[in-house]
Specification:
Length: 226
C-alpha cells in the first residue's frame, strides 16, 4: 500500500522533485545502508558520511537526495510504517470475526517487532525527535509522517469490519503504534514477553465486543444474578 506523497518544506526543491530524488536507486541504496549501519551501531552513531560510505558514496550524495540526516530518518520511519500497513492489509483480509482480526494483528506484530528492534526503531525515533527540536523543517516532516502513518494503519483497519466492531479504527491504530514503540523501548531480551498469544489477548480486549469476551461461567453467573 502506498502512503500519501512525501511532504517537503525545502523552499528550493518542490515536493515532487524531493520525491523523485528519494525514489532513485541511489537514494534507496542509501536507505538500505542506513538501516544496516543503524542496526550495527545505533542511530546516533550513523552520521551522514558513514552512511554514504557504507554503500561507496560520498556524503554529498546523501545531502543531494535527502537534504539532511533528519529527513533520511523520517524516510526510514516512513518505510517501516508502510511495511507495517502492508502486512496488516494482507493479514486482515481473511478475518471474519473480531477474534480472528485480533489474532491477525498479533501475527503481524510478532513478525514485525524483531525487525523494529533490530533496526533500532527507538533510536531512529529518538534521533529524529532530537533533530526536530532544533530544526523546524524536520519537526514538520516528522509530525506529518506520524499523521500519515496513523492514517495508513487506520485505513487498513477500517477496511476490515471485524477489526472495528467494538472500537473505532483510530483507537486500534493508536494501540498498534503504542505496542510497536513500546516494544522497541524494552531492554534487550525482554521483548520475548510479547508473544503472539499475549498480543492476541491485548488486541482481543479492544476488538472483541464484551459479551464475546465473557467466559461461560461468567455469563452463567451474570444470568443468575439477573
Amino acid at each position: 500500500m502506498l502512503l500519501p506523497p512525501r511532504p517537503t518544506t525545502d523552499r528550493t526543491i518542490s515536493a515532487s522533485e524531493r520525491a523523485r530524488r528519494i525514489a532513485t536507486p541511489e537514494a534507496q541504496r542509501l536507505l538500505v545502508a542506513a538501516r544496516k549501519l543503524i542496526a550495527r551501531r545505533g542511530a546516533g552513531a550513523a552520521n551522514i558520511n558513514a552512511i554514504a560510505a557504507e554503500c561507496g558514496l560520498a556524503g554529498t550524495s546523501l545531502l543531494y537526495h535527502f537534504g539532511t540526516k533528519g529527513r533520511l530518518l523520517v524516510e526510514l520511519l516512513r518505510q517501516g510504517h508502510e511495511r507495517l500497513a502492508g502486512l496488516l492489509n494482507v493479514e486482515l483480509r481473511g478475518a471474519a470475526a473480531p477474534a480472528e482480526a485480533a489474532a491477525s494483528i498479533a501475527r503481524v506484530l510478532e513478525g514485525y517487532l524483531p525487525e523494529a528492534r533490530e533496526g533500532d526503531r527507538l533510536g531512529v525515533v529518538a534521533e529524529a525527535t532530537g533533530r526536530a527540536a532544533g530544526n523546524r523543517e524536520v519537526a514538520l516532516l516528522l509530525g506529518q509522517e506520524r499523521a500519515y502513518a496513523a492514517a495508513a494503519i487506520t485505513r487498513e483497519l477500517a477496511a476490515c469490519p471485524a477489526a472495528t466492531r467494538a472500537a473505532p479504527p483510530e483507537q486500534v491504530a493508536a494501540l498498534i503504534v503504542v505496542v510497536v514503540d513500546g516494544a522497541a523501548a524494552l531492554p534487550p531480551g525482554s521483548g520475548g514477553a510479547l508473544t503472539q498469544d499475549a498480543l492476541t489477548r491485548i488486541f482481543a480486549a479492544l476488538l472483541v465486543p464484551w459479551p464475546e469476551t465473557t467466559s461461560a461461567p461468567e455469563a452463567e453467573a451474570s444470568g443468575a444474578l439477573g
